[in-house]
Amino acid sequence: MKNSAKREAYAKKQEEKGKKIIGWIFGGLIALALIYLIWSFSMMA
Q1: Which of 4, 29, 23 is nearest to 37 (CA)?
Q2: CA gap 41, 31 in Å, rounded
Q3: pTM for the full model?
Q4: What is the structure's pLDDT at 1?
Q5: Would you state the pLDDT for residue 32?
Q6: Which of 7, 17, 31, 41 has its CA at a distance of 20 to 30 angstroms from the CA of residue 1?
Q7: What is the tens place of the pLDDT at every residue in 1-45?
Q8: CA 11 to CA 6: how far, in whole Å?
Q9: Please, which contacts does 38-43 make with residues 24 or more away whose CB atoms are closer than 8 Å?
């Protein structure tokens, strides 16, 4: 009984950590895309 509650809490914590990591990855990709756009426009000018 005690183990399943512990396991559920651990799974929840891992899920939250995973969501946070996915958010950081998407944020990083968007930032890189913006930097690339700015860079490509400055190369054309």
Answers
A1: 29
A2: 15
A3: 0.64
A4: 64
A5: 98
A6: 17
A7: 678 999 999 999 999 999 999 999 999 999 999 999 999 999 987
A8: 9
A9: none
Question: The tokens 């000018």 sit on which residue?
Answer: 45
Q: How far apart are CA 13 and CA 15, in angstroms?
A: 5
C-alpha 28/C-alpha 22 separation (Å) is 10
Residue located via tokens 């944020």: 27
Q: Which residue has the tokens 């930032």?
A: 31
